[in-house]
User: Fold TOG domain-containing protein from Dioscorea zingiberensis.
Amino acid sequence: MASDGVKWDGLLKWSLAHSDGTNPPRNLSEEDRRWFMEAMQAQTVDVVKRMKEITLVMKTPDDVLEAQGVTPSDIQDMLEELQEHVESIDMANDLHSIGGLVPLLGYLKNSNAGIRAKAAEVVTTIVQNNPRSQQLVMEANGLEPLLSNFTSDPDVTVRTKSLGAISSLIRHNKPGIAAFRLANGYGALRDALGSENVRFQRKALNLIQYLLRENSSDCSIATELGYPRMMMHLASSEDSDVREAALGGLLELARDRTSGSNCVLAEEELKQVLQNRIEGINAMAPDDLGAAREERHLVDSLWNACYNEPSSLRDKGLVVLPGEDSPQPPPDVAGKLFEPPLRAWAAKPPSAENSDPEADKKKTTPLLLGPGPSGGNSDTQNNPST
Assistant:
């Protein structure tokens, strides 16, 4: 907020002084009314206007921006602001109408890795649970640069963010899934499984599990590409989320009766992997057992699917712990009606305890092409983490 602008604390003090309950209500003077309206208008952001300004920057050639002192860090900050605006589905769809979608997709080819990664994050937010924007991105050939970055970008963060965007783009999107398959997407996912980056592995496994669940006929492709053995290896990962995702993918293959994966999964190697996980679960402390609920269920289900018998976890009462099958409280239906129209990861704001004062300060400084708002200072912006 600009230092010479209207202060929120001053507005609060004014409001409290005129509504503390000690005095009867009175009519505002024309001067007070004008001051109050100016204070509110000074803090109101015209989102569509702001998105148009950001679009203008995205359309400006890099050399022109550089000549005006705009840095890659500034661009990343601008994209972070845009991401906040398009958390609203209406604003996400409006981005195309104001001409901002195509230049945003152009940033996926930017020479700066941080900009490529941040652009992929914005695309993820735009298309998440949004069929209209999924269609618009597909029509703008947005899948092509995302696939290119996913498969061959030298920066693993860019590859991971691009995979996340692809996952959101093709989810519940049959044309997107078809295009992903034709572009050898399954082969790229196999390569991702061989990465040493845990987050990259996890995102690949989650997308694989979704694709196999939605298209059981693809189990044969997964088997031919060697997915079963790779997922058996990852089922022993030290990362619990990777283990769960790998076990989930193996379970989808085990449930398919046409791909020939059952022959692979019935081998002694898988039985040994599951035995090792059972021993690991047996040795867990009570708190760790509770956190491993999904893994316990997956191990037991996979054993049953492959060997037609329950695992030893069931005999020891470790599949369902005491209290886990107790009735759950009724869902908070009314509460959801009052939530802001944000989606997925944006639904819960960060806690005040974990807030970063420097990051908060950074977000109040908008980036414009040319003179900015009064009191703004783009030199104070920091380079956000990717």
User: Anything to note?
Assistant: Residues 185-321 form one domain. The CA atoms of residues 204 and 227 lie 11 Å apart.
